[in-house]
User: Fold these one by one.
Assistant:
Number 1:
Amino acid sequence: MHLLIPSARLRQVALLAGALGAMALARMPARAATTPNPEADRLAFRAYFKQRFPAVKNGDWGNGPYAVNAGMRQQWEAIMQFPPYDFALGDGEKEFHRRFADGKTYADCFPDKGIGIRQNYPYFDTKTGKVITLGIAINRCRVANGEKPLNYQKGLMASIEAYMAHTSRGKPFDIKIPNDPRALAAYEDGRKFFYSRRGQLNFSCASCHVQAAGQRLRGDILAPALGILAAFPIYRSDWGSMGTIQRRFTSCNVQVRSVPFKPQDKTYRDLEYFLSYMSNGVPITGPGARP
Amino acid sequence: MKTRITFAALAAFLMASPAFAQPAAAPTTGPAAGRAIAFNRSLGNCLACHTMKGGDVPSNVGPMLNDMKLRFPDRKVLFQILWDEEKRNPQTVMPAFGKNLILDRRQIEAIIDFLYTL
Amino acid sequence: MLAACVAAMLAPGLARAATKTEAQAALAAARKAEAAAGAVRNRWLPAEAALKQAAQALAAGQYDGSVAVSERARALANRSIQQAKEQDGLWQNEVIR
């Protein structure tokens, strides 16, 4: 270093500056992409997982860890002889067709009488400017017909969702982002949350479900983010009961040692919106079963 | 002066309350202490993501931990990875054990002592 | 700093005991920091646990312990606030493009 004559050192500096400049330029498109472009995001998301797991077929993304691990798939197929969500599914079907005091049923609250529509949730409501999840829609229906709202995380809510998902199996996610800046803002809010690290463990959703997708965390296989919501609600052995998407968000946050938001908090709804949009084209598989 | 009081008090208080499993309550230094911290689920919990000798799990989120002295001859590099790996690798899945106050310096040094036996 | 800590560890009896007022002040400061973490929507569970622990110690008259745990709670809260601020920009590093 001491022997460098000034011109040589200058040349080095120039080279370094040039390299840095090239790097900055190379990064420019990514950095400059501040205008949200959900469809470009979705294609990149899909391409990423297809490249990571080339053997997984489109219909299988909703089977999470079982799609990417042959050993676990065998165990799962054995479990599915008597699916642990069957009780909930039966309860949900019964409740769905029960008449409220005013003589109406859930079917009266939904398009197509609520059958085969799970793939359209959540949607952006341009009237209220909010993301409406299936859970919110179910409770709205109840309240409008003089019933008490249900707990958003488990119990009867999960059962009703299980039935509605079951009638929608095989239908690909079809989430719309209307031409409304508030819808785009909600999408972007969910996207930011998905990629932001939280909690004392410093994990983002992406840490486990993108970076470490398909890898083993002790005995468990981490599910890829693509199609991850298609299986909900799920019977989770770890819970010993059924749970909704909102329950899973809550428990994920607790696992990274972060204080969770309330179920159906705006951020959780936005996250569900983003994540479901990323899975557009992936068929519904819910209700599901997980370790 | 204030630091002195509180550090001693924290150590004494936490050692006296086993229900409150905190970093300062763990054993002190050396490979054996480091192993205990590394395998403790509320402290290092290294086995959640790494496979290593003596840990009977198939975890593979992080790399296998072997030949550590050969692979990381510079102790400082290993310390930084345990302290705040996001700084070096923005996409890492390694928790920021030091930066986020999961473990203190002494505990991280003890873990490194243990890692160097692998 | 390290020497001071070691000295303090070896001779905790020499350290001046905290008063109730000091313990209350430490807890109030920790709660304020945790409220600020809440304002950026990024509270941590260990900070909440430490706050609870500090309040229990205060109620039990263990002022030294209470001050110590309050300070830990405050450090955790401040770190969570810092994390939220950092992630405002760093999240872009994880985006699939």
Number 2:
Amino acid sequence: MSQKILIVDDEPNIVISLEFLMKREGFEVAVAADGEAALRMVESERPDLVLLDVMLPKRNGFEVCQQIRGNPKLSGVKIIMLTAKGRDTEVAKGMALGADGYMTKPFSTRELVDKVKATLDIARA
Amino acid sequence: MLQGWVIVVCSIAYLGVLFAIAWVGDKRADQGRSIIANPYIYALSLAVYCTTWTYYGSVGRAASTGIGFLPIYIGPTLIAALWLFVMLKIIRITKTHRITSIADFIASRYGKSQLLGGLVTVVAVVGVVPYISLQLKAVSNSFTILLHYPDIVMPAHSAAVPVLQDNTLYIALILATFTILFGTRHLDATERHEGMVAAIAFESLVKLVAFVAVGAFVTFGIYDGFGDIFERAARVPRLAALMTFENDAAHYGSWTSLTLLAMLSVTLLPRQFQIGVVENVNENHLRKAIWLFPLYLIVINLFVLPIALGGLLRFPDGGVDADTFVLTLPMAHRNELLALFVYIGGLSAGTGMIIVETIALSTMVCNDLVMPGLLRQRWWPLHRERDLSGLLLGIRRGAIVAILLLGYTYFRAAGEAYALVGIGLISFAAVAQFAPALIGGMFWKGGTRRGAVAGIVAGFAVWLYTLLLPSFAKSGWLPAAFLHSGVFGIELLEPQRLFGLSGMDETTHSLFWSLAANIGAYLWVSLARRGDVVETSQATLFVDVFRHTQAQVSTQFWRGSAQVGDLLPLIGRFLGPARARAAFERYARAHGADSLDDLHADADLVHFAESLLAGAIGAASARVMVSSVVKEEPLGMDEVMNILDEASQVRAYSRQVEQKSRELEIASRDLREANERMRELDRLKDDFVSSVTHELRTPLTSIRAFSEILLEDPRTELAERKRFLGIISAESQRLTRLVNQVLDMAKIESGKVDWQNTEIDLRVVIEQSAAATQALFRDRKVALSLELPDEVPLVCADRDRLIQVMLNLLSNAVKFVEPATGWVRVRLSGAGDMLRVDVEDNGPGIRAEDQARVFEKFRQGGDALTSKPQGTGLGLPISRQIVEHFGGRMWVESEPGRGATFSFTLPVCGPARAGAQ
């Protein structure tokens, strides 16, 4: 069965590129454009992995990550955070809140795909 | 008829009364209920200045020189005015350093020098002996004269009487006994004698009353008041001359020199120093004494001239010595009670002087002459004696007897050649030699021990040569030729016309040369070579005595180690073990130690022990004794100078320090504020950079992702390929716009914009902007309407920049309103000298808390919206900066859900403004 990925970003063009990439790799894709929508869709879609941007309208990526990790029913969901702010503190904060990985924008598409696969593979093993 | 025994009994009885007063005074002092602790007693005791010299001698001098007796009393009156300045400082220094005499004072000031202490003592003894002999002479003469009552017979020359039949010798011995009883019954660490002071105050009262009584008797009893006496005297040409001031230079010279002498003597005579300084119990007493003491002098001088004139009228043939008028006038008028009272008054004046003077001198001889010598010699193992207090008292008693016998000897040898006043002046001139070292030492830190020794030696030598030796020569003790040809027959060295200086009386002459030599040597030697460590520290302690307290500084100059077990026996040997122990226990209690065992022998205790000892044996000897039992580490000159610099400059600098610290406070507050502003700016810059980074990375992310997608998969469908390339192109444009706006913002903020200012019609700007955005409005189906007046004043601004502002506002508005139903209205209006532009829309509006934030960089109104707005987040901040640059204002008014109105104003291009542009 194909695994499902939830893409959360408020930049339409970035969403388009991520959607294309994930579909090309055979993943099922869902999209949310802000933090609240993201939380709703994690509950309803039960994705295997969330590609989560940090700078989001309404609830930012950190809050979303924290909420997901605070919910035991969602413990199997993997999270890879995307950040356009390259600061180390941002990365460290994301990891501390329970993200499984992070990517700095602009990212290499190959690396992103590899990271998504690796995160899911480890989970399978 | 006054029998001899009556006079003797009265004399002894009077001395007994004085002694009783002293005994009570001492007893009360021991009980802590001092009877001398008031300024009136202090002022009266200062009147020990008035001796038989005043009592008998003033009349004698007035009989020969008229008002020439006055300078001796004008001097003290003048200097009393300076006492609050000079005397107060002497007293403070003396109390601080437990100084016991003037020799101790000078020795202590110049590095606790034994040499200097001894020198001052020798000068004082030699100088004051004639003065003591004067008292003996006066008392003896008055006794002899009274003995012949009612006949008036002048006493025979004492030289004609064999020594053992000379009543003066017995008077001297009796007074020595009394002085020993008064002054050396026990040893006191502070050398204070309260009982003696009380007796002296009483004595001063007795002599004043007696003198005023005889004055009143002569003026109102014999004659008919002042007017009567002066009138009668004026009729005798010789007497008339006495009442005028002779108008020649020599007279002015002697007036000046006598006044100066008296000014110095009233402070420097050993007995004046003893009473005025050492015995002073409270500095504040000085404040009353400075007018009470001169008042006393005025009262006692009131009748001098009437008595002198009365005597000269009564005894015109010169058979009666004018020095005896005070006594002989009542006798001539057969008033035996008054005569006896006058004799008692004179005895009173004489004994008072002798007691205080010899006590003061014996202290000096013991502390500064004998003890240093004894402590230095090796043949008598003094350090093995357990209790030396008996020895100290013995030395003092011996010194008292010796000094009185010296006085007697001088009386026998030279006494007859001079009148009373002449002898007194010799002493005055001798003690005047202390003035440069003492006064210089108190106010000039540069004075050194060598300088003081040189000055005193030089001054004393000149005094000896020009005043004392001539007094011997005049009395036949030395060949008379000495007077006229000087030593070796060299005329220039003629003692009373030194280097040919003539036209002065002998006192003035001697004073001039001795003080010149003294001051010259003192200054020259002091300036030639700097003093050593101890001198320098003492100099500072003396000169700056009002600046720091003893405890603060003195102990800074001592470093070393000591044992209580060494110090206590040492002090005990001089003060007696019991007294020493009591003093140490008091010290221990004051310093919070329970017993002597807990006492830590630090610099303070060593200093305490030394000053305790200084009270008994003088500063110089005390220093030698204490340093024999403690291990001292000598301080280097540099260290002392450092301490001094710190101590003495603290005051001077504290003001500057306060000032500086205030300035520093202000400066540091400014710095703190500046720093906070910097931090804030830094934080803003960080935020800005971070925001810019974010804004740049976002389009770059899309561009890179699509580029890689296209690159990796060349078989992408054409439609998709076109779509992706379109996104890359759009994001690239967005990137370019962003870079441009960031640069634009930076340019405006750093003031590097080249503003092209012209007179502009705002209507044109608005119309052009509307035309430029026309396509945008049409695409989104948003209605745009303009409300422009027919005519508006021009504004002075940069056309392109104003169009940039308008385009920003219009594109923002069209972005936020709903397509099809949305509208945007632009209104131009004028209010006074301002034009106002409103851009109103019917979009979602902006929440109140966000209205200010939309003008901040990268703070788009996006948070409130579901979808992210397009734009860089720099448009509004840049627009506001532009408007504000031209003197206008930009703001927004909005209610969420009911649209927003962005407004700005611009000033009309007035003549002043046009001119300024």
